[in-house]
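Sequence in, structure out. Go.
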Amino acid sequence: MTQARTEESRWKEVLKRLREVRRDTVKTVTLRVKEQQRSVRAIKGRLADGAATVPEISEATGIKAVEVLWYVATLKNYGEIIEGPKDG
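Output:
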């Protein structure tokens, strides 16, 4: 066996152990990302119907108002949504 092949085998084993150690973390993060994507889609879907306040979005989507506020602020910051005209 050559030096390069031995080194490659060693790295494969290291990566295999690393995947096993991090399996639960990766699974948890994957579920959280999917949950965030669902929330963002729900918020954007509600806003596609017309302008709405945070409490209105919260009621329509079933997401807590504090989370909706966080998502709306983030989406606005990244240019995904725009703020409508102020009323009063």
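Check: The chain has a mean pLDDT of 92. The CA atoms of residues 36 and 71 lie 9 Å apart.
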